[in-house]
Amino acid sequence: MRAIIVEDEFLAREELKYFIKNYSSIEIVDEFEDGIDVLKFIQKNEVDVIFLDINIPSLDGVLLAKNISKFSKKPYIVFITAYKEHAVEAFEIEAFDYILKPYYESRIISMLKKLEMSYNQQKDNSHKNSITNKINLWKNEKIRVVDLDDIYYCIARERVTYVSTKDEEYSVNVSITEFYNSLPKDKFFKCHRSYIVNITKIKEIIPWFNNTYNLRLQDIDYEIPVSRSNLKEFKQLMNI
């Protein structure tokens, strides 16, 4: 995993680097103190995780994370901050974790282990899906092997992602962003923070409020919203 640290306090940055280097295989590729500098860097360089303080110059951590959440390939965001009041906003943009300073060694180590586990699982799923065009999903306490081409859409309900085919609904116990990252991007698009759509199943694109769209799908009586934050990317994808 490639990571950057965004922290304007030298001692806090050094302490975090110590834990990352000694308790994980994560590579720290750069360090930043300024939010604008981070935005410029990640527009040209791919990273897998950003360890992010909130109180940083130029562009605070929450606004920076909201900008990053619009990227087609989104890195994990781990907030490490003294400000507990931003926790709700952090999880609305699906941050991987939110750690309060001063932090405990055991808390950081646990987060690093979960982070690497999630990353490796995501890579493994993505690799398997690209080779087999199959995915493992849950239904009635059994694992079902589902063809990716049979998936119409996915919807997030809290931390569970529900996956719908023409006739069935399955579940997977990961966030919708994690699940989206395991899917092939030539077929699937995250059109809303709570929805993924199989673009090959779109039958109609219906103009909606605030210049957005609703998507009507083939074979089923269901419409999927396209959020304003994903509108530009959707138009480019669909050549609108």
From TrEMBL:
Residues 135-240 form the HTH LytTR-type domain. It comes from the Bacteria. This is Stage 0 sporulation protein A homolog. The modification 4-aspartylphosphate is found at D53. Keywords: Cytoplasm, DNA-binding, Phosphoprotein, Transcription, Transcription regulation, Two-component regulatory system. InterPro entries: CheY-like_superfamily, LytR-like, LytTR_DNA-bd_dom, Sig_transdc_resp-reg_receiver. It is found in: Cytoplasm. One of its GO terms (cellular component) is cytoplasm. May play the central regulatory role in sporulation. It may be an element of the effector pathway responsible for the activation of sporulation genes in response to nutritional stress. Spo0A may act in concert with spo0H (a sigma factor) to control the expression of some genes that are critical to the sporulation process. One of its GO terms (molecular function) is DNA binding. Residues 2-116 form the Response regulatory domain.
